[in-house]
Amino acid sequence: MKILVCISKTPDTTAKIAFADNNTKFASDGVQWIINPYDEWYALVRAIELKEVDATTSISLVTVGGAEADPIIRKALALGGDDAIRINADSHDSYYIASQIAAVAKEGGYDLIFTGKETIDYNGSSIGGMVAELLDLPYISLATKFDIAGTTATVVREIEAGKETNQANLPLVVSCQKGMAEQRIPNMKGIMGARTKPLKVVEPITIDALTTLASFDLPLAKAGVKLVSADTPEELVRLLHEEAKVF
Amino acid sequence: MVLVYIDLVEGKLKKSAFEVASYAAETAKLLGTNAYAIVLGNSTDDLTSLGKYGITKVHTVAAATAFDAQVFTKVIADAATQLNATVVIFSNNLNGKAIAPRLSVRLKAGFVSGAVALPDVSNGFVVKKNVFSGKAFANVAIRTGVKIISLNPNSFNIVVVDGSAEVIAFATPVDVSKIEITATNKVTGEVLLTEAEIVVSGGRGLKGPENWGLVTDLAKLLGAATACSRPVADIHWRPHHEHVGQTGIAIAPNLYIAIGISGAIQHLAGVNRSKTIVVINKDPEAPFFKAADYGIVGDAFEVMPKIIDAVRKLKGA
Fold it and tell me: Dihedral, CA atoms, B158, B164, B166, B172, nearest 10 degrees?
């Protein structure tokens, strides 16, 4: 089985969110970059687990970005990817990125495409669905479990008020979230091995984005917390009822 | 025309359906046009009632019963094209996340997910959306003729008007799904976390699952959903589907009450869109107090029974 795992570079979860150039760009100075947690913890690690069960499985990674994305690709290779493709382009919008990934996927002929459920920066939750439509494949979103027997996948996905088990034949696109796998730390052997694993850089296809990010805003600062004494908790209930009017 | 996809949960209309219906109607007003709805599958609720949220026509496709994003996308694309929709609206809920991006590709229509306000049509078509897990907003311009928006749950006030929608069957082929649904496990009898107006949440400060009555008793009195922090789900005090935060569920209720949760940045990322935040923690240095509107620095085991009593009195229960 050939698996393609889509990975994205995002600011660390504790990064300070600020903007530059008249609020048109993320202020990335001093920001630590990580693999988007959903892509790493759930999509990639589940792919690695599938390979541990069936050694004939191969795991390719794909990302859209400039050379500054290479460290996170190397980390993903250290965790257990076999090879990687970096599409040498800045991200424009979800449609642009999905089109680049779909072009690579078409060429590689993958059985299974994994994405994280969303990136923690743009929160689009769109790449999996768009890639599936571009390739005319079924798409199971927000999966919490994935198993394979032959060419039939059994996937548990989140639905409103519960879970649903789906079965579908490969090829298939799946977006992954909590439950799929547990976070792993790369070991020294993986880190050393990652240096020599193939990382192919390809140029993007020509395609127009459908949207443009015009500007960013920060939410208004909170007025500050109103503290109630621990001796009179009933006062909190009164404030919530009469002042905040929330119940 | 503005077309809104109305999601059914077990044949029923949920709060998110009324939110997107209102959002579609208000968007249509801005554009000087009508808002139509499309409903797939069989509804046990009266669909003419969508008129109360400003929808004039409801197009139904009864044959599309089992959810499959690929099949549903084709049906909605047919409707959008044949009815000349210029804007298509979804809830940014679980099914919306599966269909809307596919439809964007199929119609080559620019898509903004997770909108938090009506589009600004004064100069082009700009949609404000959540980014950086609730820590910021982006204003995104859609450049295509047809536009797609998914609205974050609990981000738009429902507007009730006088009206009744006309319900019309929409004739279109429905493909055979390549996905088979083999089992469904429902969490019943609980308030849906993503739709709840009030959420009561507990953290490690509660010391063990046996103390969760402090959370569930208050939740029951308030008609609230219950939630928990990541460590609590990881050590199996509470089920994973209750985990709110960066890697769990993101919520935006009117009131979020956090008991014994310190407020790590990853937790805040999942709850910072809550309108009012109450924090009860014995550590005055807990970072959560910085994001809170109201707080008590105190021991949850002493404070919570008194709060529960006061709420019980207030509710006359």
Answer: 20
